[in-house]
Every structure is written in C-alpha cells, then in structure tokens.
Design a protein that fits this description.
GO cellular component, one term: membrane
Pfam families: FA_hydroxylase
Oligomer: single chain
Order of helices and strands: HHHHHHHHEHHHHEHHHEEHH
Strand content: under 5%
Number of strands: 4
Protein name: Fatty acid hydroxylase domain-containing protein
Helix content: 40-55%
Subcellular location: Membrane
Bound molecules: zinc ion
Shape: globular
Distance between the termini: 48 Å
Strand order of the largest sheet: 1-2
Largest sheet: 2 strands, parallel
Structural class: mainly alpha
Organism: Allacma fusca
Length: 427
Amino acid sequence: MTPKPRKNDSSRNGSAVKYGTPIHLNNKQGSEEEEKPSSYPKALNAFSNLLFWGERNNDKLESVFGNHLGRILASLSMFILGITARGEWVIFGVYFLKYIQSGGSENYIEESDQLIQSFSDWVDVRFKGYFSILVPATIVSYLMYFGIGGYLHWFYYVRQRDTPENWKCQPKTWLSPELERHEIMVGSVSLVFGSAISAAIATYVVNGGWTTIYFNISDYGFVYFVLQVPMCFIFQDYLTYWHHRIYHTPFLYKNFHKLHHTYKQPTAFSVTAIHPIEFMHMQAVMMSPMFLFPVHWLTFSVGLVYIYYHGIIDHSGVNFKRYWWQPWQPDCIFHDNHHQYFHVNFGFNCELWDKLHGTYRRKDRIYREDIFYGTGKSLHEATAEELQQDIQERVSENPLAYQGDQRHFDLSSDEILGTLGKLKQNH
Ligand SMILES: [Zn+2]
Ligand SMILES: [Zn+2]
C-alpha cells in the first residue's frame, strides 16, 4: 500500500489552517462530533498532549520530513506499528530463537518437560521469566504506538490537514480532539492487555509448552508447507469475520463493540481502541491456529504481521488501496465504510465473506447504527428525511478512496427521483 500521489503538494502552503494552536486545530467546520469536557486524569491528558506537539512544531518537522522521505517513512511506519503495537513481535522472536535452538533436529527434546509434576509446577516451568519478556514487550508497544502513531498523525492529519480531499476517506468530517484523546486512552489500555497475552504465549513457547507450531519444513512436507499459507489465512480471516459479526448483534454491540465504533472517522490510533474483553477474545481467535493444526512458525508469524499491518491501514482513514498482488484484499475504504455506516462490511482481509453472506455494502440499502444485522434497510422503506441524510453521508465520501477514483455508492438523480416516487406512494 502506498499513499496516492498528492495533486497539489507544491501549492500546499498551509494558508487554510493556522498551526500553533494544537488542540483547537481539529475544530474545522464540518466536524460533526461534539466536544465534551475532558474527564481524564491530568497525567493521562498530559501524556496524550505530547502527541499534539507535532501540531505545534509543524514547520520544523515539515523541513525534515515534508517530502518524498516523509511518504516513505509513513508507509514504513504503518508496517512497523502493525507488527509491534500489540507485542506479537516477542512471539515471532521466540519462534525464531527456538528455530535456531532446534538446529534443524527433529528430535529436539525440552529439558523442562522433566520438571513438571503438578499444575503449579506447570505454571512455574512454562511461565518462567514472564516479566523479563513482559517488560520489553510493553515498552516497545508503547514506544511504537505513540512514536509511529504520532508520526502518522502528523504526516496526514497535521501536515496535510488543509488538503483532506487528496488523502482522507471522509474528507469533510474529523474526529474531535476529545475523541482523539479517547481513542488514544482506550487504545493504550488495550496495549497492556495485548502485551500481557503476547508475553504469556511467548514465555509458554520459550519454556517448551505444547503447540501445533513446527519448525522443520520436512516434518509435514513441502506441499503442506505451501498449502498451509492460504489455509491458515482463510481460517483466521473467516473466523474473524464471524467474531466481528457476532459482536454486531444488539447485546454484544451495545455492551462491548460500540466502544470501538465511537470513532466514525477512525485513525491509526483506533486499531487497538477496543473493549478489553473483546480485545482478548480477538487475540484468542488470532492465536488459535497454533493450538489447532500444524503450522510452520514462519507462516504463523508472517501471517500475524500481515493481519496487524492491514489492521493499521484499515483504520488509518487514509485512501490506501490494495496492491495488484493481493486481489482478495479490500481497500482501506471498505473498513472505513464499516465505521461510517456501522452494521455492514464485517470482514477484514477478504471481501468474499461479506459477499457470500449478504453483508457487503449495497447501493440500494441504507445502513445506520440503529439498523442491525448487516443487511441495512431498503431505500424504499426509508422516510424522505432518512433518505436525505443517507445521501449526505454518501456524497461526503472521497472518490479517490475507491477503485477507479469514483464513488461506487452515489445515487444518480434518476435513482433518487425513482425512490422518492415510491416513497410518496407508500406514505
Ligand atoms: Zn465493527
Ligand atoms: Zn474498526
């Protein structure tokens, strides 16, 4: 994924927006979220204020990163944030270590197995050294989340704030400063959970715990090694589709998943801004292959990198599109639509599941937070007011975020008139 070339990079002179007033910067007209008084502890607020440092120092940063280098760094940042934010890199590291340790030998025996006689032995042996992994995992998660997330925030949301039509999926609406803080708070709480779980899995593996991960390609042959790549990917992605879809049923949505949907215009910080219960459930889904079927450590680790990288991309709010070599992958706008229209487009890395199950966004349906189950509501059942609101939502989307650079869901004037005619007959 590479950012689209910006049309008027050279003419961008910041005239539309004055930098220097960090928090109120975001109060551009058109911002639809209301600012509420801050209810966070002062220390936490000060922490998130660090992020707005970039807004105050835009001119200095601009001179260092404001060109080609900046774009390359932005793409690279997405990648690094994707693989480090939740602490999975420690698992990757541990597998790599074990691969080296096993030295290709099929008869590698864990010495620690001999020490286990009871459950407490099991905990002591398998989770030995937990904190020595937890501490670096957590530190790296935070450094990456704030360092790289902050950089992306500056690169798009500050530096190119006056030209959102060139890069932003929803160019007319912005998350309010209060909601930006909110997502950073929730997102950073989840990092603690993410790092704790990743560190637990990593110590379990490093201490010889049982998994279905294997290290030598020859164990199951080369054909299986190749076949397991799509198998593992499809398994995880399909399970994630259902996991997400189930969290969109009224009870789970209102009590857990709604938190993640606080952000109608998601940003890279939203990716971990998920209710802790749902977050842990999601990690269990991601980790499940390592306890269910034989999977080579490299397939599993690279798969996780891919999933988290796209998690960042999907929430960035930037008009990233899939590469030619990943025809299964939706563009960023697919999940951005999910945040704008709520109960639709539940998948992550394949559009296919939504197409198969009828939850893919359709032009002749209206989707809103109060219309559950992913199939929306027919245009003909809407009131004139609902229709008008829906049309406003549709035209607020950025055509540049779609394939062919045009909005796929705009209604033609004939379609609008036809619908209005039907509405009149119905009422
Ligand atoms: Zn959702
Ligand atoms: Zn999301």
